[in-house]
Amino acid sequence: MTPDDREQLQKQVELLQQELAESRRKMSELEQRTKSSSAADMGDIPVTISEFEDTLRRLVQRTAMIVQAEKCVVMVRDREAGCLVARMPAFGLTEEEVKSYRVIEGDGGSDAVYQSGEPLVLDSSQTANELAKLKVRNGISVPLLIEKRDDNNMLMERITVGVLNCFNKRYGGEFNDEDVRLLERLSRSAAAVIANAQMFQEVVAEKEKLVQTLESLTAGLLLINQKNRVVQMNAHARKMFVEDVTDPINRPFTDVIQHEECKQILQRMIQDSVNPLPSSLPPDEDKKPDEIRVYDPDGSEFIYQMHAATVRDDANNLLGTVIIFNDVTELRNLEQMKTNFVSIVAHELRTPLTPMKGFIRTLLDDVNEEWYLLEDRREFYTIIDENIDRLSRLINDLLNISRIERLGAQGLEMTWEKAELHEIADSVVTMQRGRTDRHTLIVDFNPERIVIDTDKDMIQNVLHNIISNSIKYAPGGGEIRIVARIEPATEERAESVVIGVKDHGMGMTEPFLKRIGEKFNRGDGRPKSGGTGIGLWLVKNIIMAHRGEMWAESPGIDKGTTFWVRVPVVHIAEEDNASIPMQKD
Fold it and tell me: Do the beta carbons of residue 87 and residue 102 sit within 8 Å?
């Protein structure tokens, strides 16, 4: 090698050393900022992965020039695959060649260098398999080593992070010991860049994993730094508060959140996190968590419970405040519905008891049975009997609720038999006609005679509940038509009968139609006409016990409603009953 060549090589080595020093400086800056950054800087990473890629690209190119190689590539360990894989950027290799170049454990060559930490010179007899596909004649492989030393420069640990390969000496030459020494010296720079890039990628991957985890939470999450700016806001929280498409990150939370009550609570929570109460003061165990009400674009109300916690670094320095928004809408609605249910049931129980008590007392007061005619007495007894039936149905409904909540729809005690549906409908309509003088009830079946497998009492309960609802929610009267038709068997279902009850009453909104059959659901905000709110829930479960389905249709408010149920004509075999789905509230 001529003196000019040595001088040129020395300049190349100095350039690489300068780039290594710059890379180390940036990595040190990254580590320092990561340790000392506040929550406000969590999204600002000073060094991008592209900078490492550019540094590695220049290093690979200059390494190939220094050792006069046609190809140069770095290989790193793939932990999941358990082998060495080539990585971009590379010199003299296409992206497809780099992707296909890998060395499994125990295959010699680069893997032997990685395992032993010793360099290897390859001649034409050692370039089979994968290297032959890359048109490699000869080459050098050196380990990429990171050395950790103590304050006295004593070696504490040596870690192999990969392998640096140079292939095909230019001008048909062969690699020699001097090339090995040069490549070992250059590999220290490559090892530092690779290690820094891997550490950076791991940090980015962990951050991405954390972000994805936060995004998938069903609760809303909001992270506010000490400057009152939004650092993190997951999808659920954005859905709650962000109406425009502007990125909320790094904006003041008072600009992002337009909910006035929520802003006031957040300001207090942040203040409490900055200036917490002295630990000597006992916590207020009776203090309830803050709750807010949020309305979506459709006007539906949601109730969120807010919980706040401080975020601190390893040195216990305050970074910010994280607020969790738990959706307790269903819980609050259920609590309110149960409270209403107890009140309604008490009223429903009292309703039949009052006339029963009154007429029994009237009859008892007539000791000599001379005040009332026989016809009057029979009327009194009939009223008492009807109210006993009403009380009995209510008690049975309550017992069925208990069974369904414990066992699902299959908890209902069903007595299966062949039954003529028109006869059942006629008996229900006869009883319901006695409760209204403003409605015309019509049974309209096609065909008129329909025989199905059912429990007579249960199917009567279904019709009683649906027709009773039609009467209640059509206070102006009108026609209530009970229809039925046979649906032939298809690939999806067996032969079925579809029963519908059509009225001309108050109608329903689309959101309420979706809630048909929910427990304690008693209307959609318009005037109600009593009831426990469990009738249609029981209907739904009775139909499920038949392996059928229930739904409702309505053109809109004040345009009437049609309730539909579909049940199989023939009862499902007993051994298949276990597959009846459990009722979900």
Answer: no
Confidence band of 445 (pLDDT split at 50, 70, 90): very high
Cα distance between residue 130 and residue 389, in whole Å: 87
Of all helices (H) and strands (E), which one includes residue 86? strand 83-91
Where does residue 281 rank: exposed (0-12), middle (13-18), buried (19+ CB within 10 A)? exposed
Find residue 485's DSSP bridge partners: 446, 498
| Euclidean distance between CA atoms 133 and 117, whole angstroms | 25
Give dist(CA 499, CA 88) in Å, integer: 68
Tell me how far apart the alpha carbons of residues 94 and 513 are, in angstroms, rounded to a whole number.
61
pTM of the model: 0.47
For residues 465 and 539, give the distance between their C-alpha atoms in angstroms, rounded to a whole number. 7
According to DSSP, the residues that pair with 248 across neighbouring strands are: none
Is the dihedral angle over the CA atoms 465, 470, 475, 476 positive or is it negative? negative
CA 327 to chain centre: 13
Token pair 């050692």: residue: 126
Domains of the chain: 3-214 (3.30.450.40), 220-276+287-327 (3.30.450.20), 332-407 (1.10.287.130), 409-579 (3.30.565.10)
- Among candidates 139, 153, 152, which has minimal Cα distance to 108? 139
Kind and range of the H or E run holding 339: helix 329-365
As given in the structure block, the two tokens for residue 458 are 């249960």
461 contacts 538 by C-beta, under 8 angstroms? yes
Q: 213: which residues sit within 8 A by CB, 6+ positions away?
A: none
Cα-Cα end-to-end distance for the chain:
85
Q: Which pLDDT belongs to residue 469?
A: 86
**Looking at residue 287, what is its pLDDT?**
65
Bridging pattern class, strands 318-327 and 549-553: unpaired
Q: Which long-range contacts (CB under 8 A, 24 or more apart) does 112-120 make?
A: 113/141, 113/142, 113/143, 113/163, 114/75, 114/77, 114/84, 114/143, 114/160, 114/162, 114/163, 116/143, 117/143, 117/145, 117/158, 117/160, 118/143, 119/143, 119/180, 119/183, 119/184
Write out the DSSP string of 489-530: --SSS-SEEEEEEE--SS---HHHHTTTT-TT---SSS----
Report which DSSP code applies to 252: B
In total, the chain counts a number of residues equal to 585
Distance CA 53, CA 51 (A): 5
pLDDT tens figures, 402-433: 777 777 777 777 889 999 999 999 989 988 88
261 backbone dihedrals φ, ψ, rounded to 5°: -65, -40
Closest by CA position to 471, among listed 483, 479, 461, 459: 479
For residue 567, what pLDDT is reported?
Answer: 93
Q: Which long-range contacts (CB under 8 A, 24 or more apart) does 384-387 make?
A: 384/355, 384/356, 384/359, 384/360, 387/352, 387/353, 387/355, 387/356
